[in-house]
Amino acid sequence: MTLHRSTLPPEILERLRTGTAIPAHPLALDQDRRFDRHRQRALTRYYVDAGAGGLAVGVHTTQFAIRDVGLYEPVLAAAMADARAWTDRPLVMVAGLAGDTGQAVAEARTAVGLGYHAGLLSLAALKGHDTDALIAHCEGVAARIPLIGFYLQPAVGGMALNADFWARFAAIDNVVAIKAAPFNRYATLDVMRGVVAARAEDRVTLYTGNDDHIVLDLLTPFTVMRDGAPVTVRFRGGLLGHWSVWTRSAARMLERLQGAVAAGAIPADLLALDSRVTDCNAAFFDVANDFHGCIAGCHEVLRRQGLLDGIWCLDPHEGLSPGQAAELDRVCREHADLSDDDFVAANLERWLS
């Protein structure tokens, strides 16, 4: 079973291209580290009602280890079934794809069979391969499903990918978007340069995954020279682990940022918001400890809101780092207006029903 971008529902393609908020869906586990289907359903309902324009499932925030314990298909199937049962609103459903070409193609086949619209392709398993091998891998997976490129930061398993790679990747016909998440401005510019060099800026939509610069990424025009003339591209939306928490606030923030860009006037308070959101991310993602607690930190915010029972991860060694809970206390106190605690409290019982 294969899927090409030309056969995507028009409303899905339009939402993807316009730019939307796509939270990376966490994995709910019980105290025995087994899949908590009840809490997983509540999370999906939360994201839908919070205004997310799509869901990314089977990605880093969902824990790549779901593949090792036989949960890849069940978790993807759960998100699709729960989203469809909860809303008729079109959602861009993105499946994480990982492993070597055989594994990634098999996962793409699974995702297409479940109704997913695109695959977010991790290249972590191909570390050390040259650009030719990486592009051959991407082409093999793109033959099965529309692709979203994934520039994953090296601190959590990614690799350096230069502008030449991104130019060749963007030239692949079934590529629809790129999530830039190197947490590095120079590397982010390489993505822009590659897309422009491939003349793919009208086909490949840019999504920020730079959790350390979310607001400025979404406000900044990026100008690249091509054939002696400037070409300007922009991030249109976000596909973010950070947006797995305080999602209602994130969706509304994106609408405001998009409105400011469309109006051609960026208020100073929006520029100042960048540092505040980044401050929150430092606590959520455990920057002080090289991102060791990045998944557990998001879990902890959801636990405090009542959406999760605990912060358990598949790897028992993953958890909050020393001092991370205190940092979460601080940002929740200092940036309370960026949270959506009241929204969650008002709807939690319904989501858990």
Q: How does this model look, in words?
A:
With 353 residues, the protein is of the alpha/beta class. It has helices at residues 10-18, 37-50, 72-86, 101-114, 131-142, 163-170, 185-197, 214-219, 247-263, 268-284, 294-305, 324-334, 341-351, and strands at 21-23, 54-57, 92-97, 118-121, 147-152, 175-181, 205-208, 222-226, 229-233, 235-240. The strands form two sheets. It has an eight-stranded parallel sheet with strand order 1-10-7-6-5-4-3-2. It has a two-stranded antiparallel ribbon with strand order 8-9. Helix 4 (101-114) packs parallel to helix 5. The protein is globular, with a radius of gyration of 19 Å. The mean pLDDT is 96.
Q: What is the helix fraction of residues, given as a range?
A: 40-55%
Oligomer: single chain
The chain-level structural class is: alpha/beta
The value of Rg in angstroms is 19 Å
How far is it from the N-terminal to the C-terminal residue, by CA?
35 Å
Question: What is the number of E strands?
Answer: 10
Features:
alpha/beta; 8-stranded parallel β-sheet; two-stranded antiparallel sheet; 10 strands
